[in-house]
Design goal:
binds iron/sulfur cluster; alpha/beta; four-stranded antiparallel sheet; binds magnesium ion; binds adenosine-5'-diphosphate; 13 helices; 12 strands; globular
Length: 378
């Protein structure tokens, strides 16, 4: 293999991964399945949407700015949300909306050129501004991240067993034999058949889905309380994608982790989540418990994302509704609503004033002057 071994250890790569490739433009790209409907947000036994308990993660007014060619690129513009232990939050939006950058800010994985402001509290402790070594420890014990492309995340020249045991030994002071036993346990946990045989294989001997399972095993090596899956199934075929999503949910329940599903695919992310955040141009534009969101979509942008998902009740070969144009670039955000240049419902006020994200109905936040009403044409 001609690929150079990455400088980082597998343990660090599990949380860092490669630079995530951006997914296809959601408004014009193919969707794959019916969106979640009320009552079908989560497979398995009904779970309360908001159980009592404290927040695991609290993000307040998160802002990320890059300095580029003497100008500022605003990638994240004041995001606030929280996530409780054991819950699943989906963050959706087109490519470039700030999903990955906002997660990397939580992980302390942004390049030095990024300025980060606001507050990110994990179990009550502020993370922003911590020294690098403390952030590394946080990544090693509290939070792990799985990225889109397992082929690029794994070292092609190392047997997968070694990559997992290295990850384990990065986080735990245990001998090689115990690490091997634990690695095989992790391979079983992520439902890899014949784990002892797979242990000695190389990444190219595994399918894409199996490689992503290995990446998940590496991410789990540190017993994270929060697992962030950033487009983790985007490069996989539909069947494998569903299997990996089911696996993530089972693991989440078995290990009582919180899960953040980052995706350009509203149907996919929302089908598996308790709550959905929709991002546009670095801001949250709509946020609600999943069932509420699908029952009462308010933002025209969310509606467009929803309409872009192919549905069985549309005529075969019908063109998906799309909205032309692209999101604004972070160097020149419009004065008013960022979506105004593309919004089918825009009126004069939209180009002038920027709507704030507000809780207009219990648990349901949106940022729009002229929200959709129930029953607006689909
Ligand atoms: N290292 C960087 N330097 C400058 N701009 C960046 C950098 N990384 C991301 N951005 C910009 O930040 C914005 C958000 O990017 P990202 O979070 O990757 O989007 P998403 O994950 O939603 O596709 C994009 O406009 C992107 O170009
Ligand atoms: S504020 Fe106006 S432009 Fe923005 S989403 Fe709402 S209707 Fe569309
Ligand atoms: Mg991304």
């Amino acid at each position: 293999m001609s690929k150079k071994r990455p400088a980082t250890s597998p343990g660090e790569r599990a949380v860092m991964g490669p630079d995530p490739a951006t997914g296809p433009d959601m408004l014009s790209g193919p969707g794959r399945r019916e969106p979640a409907r009320p009552g079908s947000a989560r497979p398995g036994p009904d779970r309360p949407l908001y159980s009592a308990g404290s927040d695991l993660l609290e993000v307040q007014n998160l802002q990320v700015r890059f300095r580029q060619g003497g100008r500022d690129v605003w990638a994240v513009n004041g995001m606030s949300y929280s996530l409780r232990a054991g819950k699943t939050l989906a963050i959706v939006g087109e490519s470039g909306s700030g999903k990955t950058v906002s997660c990397r800010a939580i992980m302390g994985l942004l390049p030095k050129a990024a300025s980060v402001a606001g507050s990110v509290r994990f179990e009550g402790a502020e993370l922003l501004g911590l020294p690098d070594a403390t952030m590394r420890a946080h990544r090693g014990t509290d939070v792990a991240m799985v990225f889109q492309d397992p082929a690029r995340s794994l070292n092609p020249t190392m047997r997968i067993g070694i990559q997992i045991t290295e990850a384990i030994r990065t986080h735990q002071a245990i001998d090689k034999n115990s690490a091997r036993d634990r690695a095989i346990e992790l391979l079983k946990l992520v439902r890899i058949p014949l784990p002892a045989r797979r242990f000695v294989e190389y990444p190219h001997q595994l399918s894409g889905g199996m490689r992503q399972r290995v990446m998940i095993a590496i991410a789990l090596a540190c017993h994270p309380k929060l697992l962030i899956a950033d487009e983790a199934t985007t490069s996989l075929d539909v069947t494998t994608q569903a299997q990996i999503m089911e696996l993530l949910l089972e693991l989440q329940q078995d290990l009582d982790m919180a899960l953040m599903l980052i995706s350009h695919d509203l149907g996919l992310a929302a089908s598996y989540s308790d709550e959905v955040i929709v991002m546009y141009a670095g801001r949250i534009v709509e946020q609600a418990p999943t069932q509420e969101l699908f029952a009462h979509v308010r933002m025209p942008y969310t509606k467009v994302l929803l309409q872009a998902i192919p549905r069985l009740d549309r005529p075969a070969h019908a063109l998906l509704p799309v909205v032309s144009g692209r999101p604004p670039d972070g160097m020149s955000l419009p004065v008013g609503c960022s979506f105004a240049p593309r919004c089918p419902s825009a009126q004069e006020r939209c180009a002038r004033d920027s709507p704030d994200l507000e809780e207009h109905e219990p648990g349901h936040h949106w940022a729009c002057w002229y929200p959709c009403e129930d029953g607006d044409s689909e």
